[in-house]
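Cross-check.
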Amino acid sequence: MKRLIYVFLVLAGLSSCDDFLTEDLKGDYNSTNILSNEEQAQLAVNAIYNAAAYSINLWKFGDVASDDAVKGGNDGDQAEIGYIDDFTVQSDNGVIAEFWQNTYETISRANNVIDGIKNTPMDATKKEQMIAEAKFLRAYSYFQLVNIFGEVPLKLYPQNSDKNIYVGLSSVEGIYTQIEKDLTDAVVLPVSYAVTETGRATRGAAYGLLAKAQLYQKKYGEALTSIQNLESLNLYDLDSYENLFKLGNENSIETIFAICFLSNQVPTCSNALNQWLAPSIESGYFFDNPTQSWVDIFTEKQTDGSDDLRLDASIGRDGKTWLNDNTFSSSWSSTGYLVKKHNQPLTEVDAGRKGDGGLAYIYLRYADILLMKAECLLRGATATNGDTPASLMNIVRRCSGAPDVTGTPTIQDLMDERLRELIMEPWRRNDLIRNGMFENDWAWKNGWYVDGVWHERVAADGTPARDKTHRLLPIHRSLLEANPTWSQNPGYQGL
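Predicted model, tokenized:
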């Protein structure tokens, strides 16, 4: 390599769960010795997790660009998230630019490891593991990019390589092919780690994300096989929904992959979602407000007549007990609701340091896998072990006290169940798009009330603003200016 790999510049702020978070980079490094031994190679791998931590901001796309949440916050605050929320986003949006930059930083660090570690003298098994971690995180990053932007540049080499400097946009098919390849290579990962290494990608994470990538491509038989490979590890099961998103339990038997954090670190290793989502009375910014339509999806009661446990475990509702044992007020939010997931009580993170959260961000968990399996069967994959779509949905539902499904559920039934189970996890927007439901009649997206009068959002030609161009977000203008061979996604003006 011709120049110093810059992945280590913020290495002390690593983002994963335990001891490996706080390993400091010591000494002077240059292009000839940066990966000269196993210790340095490990630090380089750790630095990929650091960059990947930005993906906790997927709520800006997965939630607010969907039907389960609105931007929230004060009027005018974070206006660029508001443009994503109401489908008026344009190519100069700073949120888009930041997400692109941070995601490609993750990819760049992964590429540096994959390429640079080849000649590092170290244990062969450990080297294989490190490369597999880097490939998993590269695939993880491209999975976000392809679902938000569609065609993006597929960069697979260090940034100082001519192969990686001038890269055109790759097809969606080509990107998914690379995602599958990287994840297939990554299944050599360990099935588990020592407690001090919690937060690293595992074999189960590789199988789980591979299954999701295959499902999104309508490869239902292949997705089912990947799920069965995950199940054969005999490591995962459902856990208490109420406790799953609480500090100390977020890496439970249900968690397959999570981005992990630590509080009270210098430099910071913390999760700032805690501040983004908390109410203002706790020094939070009260963004990502759940919608009434999400609450209304809970039409069924437990056998004792009480609400589905997932409702109050996921959100704050008027008159209900909030995280700090105080009573929630609908005035705390633009919709009357706030997110409990990803939020910590003041006993863990006081108001003076609200952004210094230590709660892991659960990205992939076993309940999602079971619902994916149910979908594969609904769409024609061959069942094994007596599984049916209903039996799989019921395994998930029983954990929250919901009554059993009878008969064969429809795809709509399954999507409703995913909405109940996975709110404020980054899947809703993707679920709607891949099932052709993204342009459904969302009252809160397609219009608004003013003094009790409904005003429908319309396109320039006067028709309802429900075109399919919003399935993708625009590539930032600065990128198109620097890469004249690239083309903007349809529906967005100019560069």
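Residues 1-18, 20-32 have pLDDT under 50 and may be disordered. The CA atoms of residues 146 and 461 lie 30 Å apart. Passed to J.P. for a second look.
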